[in-house]
Amino acid sequence: MLIISLVAEKRQLTDDQLIEQTLSGESEAFGHLVRRWERQIYGLALRVLGHEETARDVCQETFLSAFRNLSKFRGDAQFSSWLYRITLNHCNTHLRRSETKTNVSLDEQLEAGVPEPTGSTELVDETINREQMAKHLRKALSAIPSEMRQVIVMKEYQGLKFHEIAEILNLPVSTVKTRLYTGLSQLRRRLEHLRNAG
Question: What is the 3-state secondary structure (H, E, C) of the chain?
């Protein structure tokens, strides 16, 4: 009962309080930070990189880097923004290492959300249409330069605000907006081209 009560207490603590506890030697406090943020960090890495295994690696690298550098976290930005920045740095490192920079495939992540066809013809048709649409979206997204893809992922998938993205990327808000709108415009054009070609 005491353990359950301590876990519940940790969940109610803010990121800053958990950071403070971690820095004072309570390493389990960092475990709570990991559990709190791992889904968002993994989601960001998966959408930027497109491969589950690489996204898992980046997620681990992010939290390892965060733990090692936690004493350098100044607190003038949100902890989540700091984590996103670390994640994107690791994503960029993986993208630079890969032979094909635009080899992004979201198959595994998007297929998980598509229901298995049942006997209904309408449902089967709808599933096929969604799979085709998801395939076109993955292909179009993979062809967009990574700096635009990152902004699209953070804004459209992570739900971050422009000022949060600007803080994470250390860019002016106007640049973030330009990258988003240019990226979305390129994405639309590529989707139209893929639909017309298919």
Answer: CHHHHHHHHHHHCCHHHHHHHHHCCCHHHHHHHHHHHHHHHHHHHHHHHCCHHHHHHHHHHHHHHHHHCHHHCCCCCCHHHHHHHHHHHHHHHHHHHCCCCCCCCCHHHHHCCCCCCCCCHHHHHHHHHHHHHHHHHHHHHHCCCHHHHHHHHHHHHCCCCHHHHHHHHCCCHHHHHHHHHHHHHHHHHHHHHHHHHC
Tell me the whole-structure pTM to 2 decimals.
Answer: 0.69
Q: Give the residue extent of every domain in the chain.
A: 13-101, 105-198
Output the CATH code of domain 105-198. 1.10.10.10
What is the chain's pLDDT, residue by residue, as a tens digit (198 residues)?
Answer: 545 454 556 668 999 999 999 999 998 999 999 999 999 999 999 888 878 899 999 999 999 999 999 999 988 888 999 999 999 999 989 888 874 444 344 444 444 444 444 445 565 556 666 677 777 777 788 788 889 999 998 998 888 999 999 999 999 999 999 999 999 999 888 888 877 776
CATH of span 13-101: 1.10.1740.10
